[in-house]
Design goal:
two-stranded antiparallel sheet; 1 helix; 99 residues; mainly beta; 5% helix; globular; 6 strands
Amino acid sequence: MTKKFQRTTEDFVCEFCGRKIKGNGYTDHCPYCLWGKHVDVNPGDRAATCGGAMKPIDFEEKAMRVRIKYKCQECKHTFWVKAAPNDDYEKIINIKVNL
């Protein structure tokens, strides 16, 4: 049984916008375009075999925190992640406009 969260520090190139991203162990999506990649079953475990593009499809603000909802473009899995402090907030608030 794996832990629900595993900190995995990795740098990556965003497959959607092409920017180089420096990971901090909590980075699970591009802070510029907000897209991610379906690589985890539980956060940080890198156990998912899908590898599909994770599209930001919704967001919510609650108690001074922002969460982004993602949908895998391959297997259609959806899940919520916490927005990172360096995420482009303008992109977050435009998620619903750009559906």
